[in-house]
Design a protein that fits this description.
86 residues; mainly beta; five-stranded antiparallel β-sheet; 38% strand; globular
Length: 86
């Protein structure tokens, strides 16, 4: 069973959103990135430490949301975002 933790100690605010890494709880391969996006802020290439990389953020930017992944390619349509529920 794979268990990961959100490593907020290495997190930072970039382009208006908070970026944190997913790291294995134990030693081993794995990982990814989480972006906590407030209402009105778009996901950018900075989430992958690639400011020049284009992110085609197709999410509903009128809501707070979370995006998670290992690559921007093919992972920016609406189905890859989790939304805050009122």
């Amino acid at each position: 069973m794979y268990t990961a933790k959100v490593a907020i100690e290495y997190g930072k605010i970039t382009d208006g959103f908070f970026k944190a890494e997913l790291v294995p709880k134990e030693v081993g391969p794995g990982g990814g990135t989480l972006a906590f996006l407030p209402q009105g802020v778009s996901l950018t290439g900075s989430v992958m430490s690639s400011p020049n990389e284009k992110a085609d953020d197709q999410s509903d930017k009128s809501k707070d949301r979370i995006w998670g992944g290992q690559s921007l390619y093919g992972t920016t349509d609406d189905s890859y975002f989790f939304y805050k529920v009122d």
